[in-house]
């Protein structure tokens, strides 16, 4: 499965980069395949492992923020691995063909 999620601290002002970095650090240290962009962090793996990483990422932000918002989208597709790379490669292949 692939989960794209965004953790946002609330009540800490406009500059939230250091809080978000705490969450991303948890994801990167998990060892699961992941990718971060301006809006979301995506992580790939088995259900329990991915959800545990999301939970720990939220907890890392909760340690310093009075309130946390979590947005999560999941692609649950048993038997598929390396979806983070394969999905992008498919789109790129179609773009280069046209």
From TrEMBL:
InterPro entries on file: MTH1187/YkoF-like (IPR029756), Thiamine_BP (IPR002767), UPF0045_domain (IPR051614)
Stored Gene3D superfamilies: 3.30.70.930
Pfam family, one: Thiamine_BP
Lineage: superkingdom: Bacteria
Domain Thiamine-binding protein: 3-92
Family membership: Belongs to the UPF0045 family.
PANTHER family linked to this entry: UPF0045 PROTEIN ECM15
Protein name: MTH1187 family thiamine-binding protein
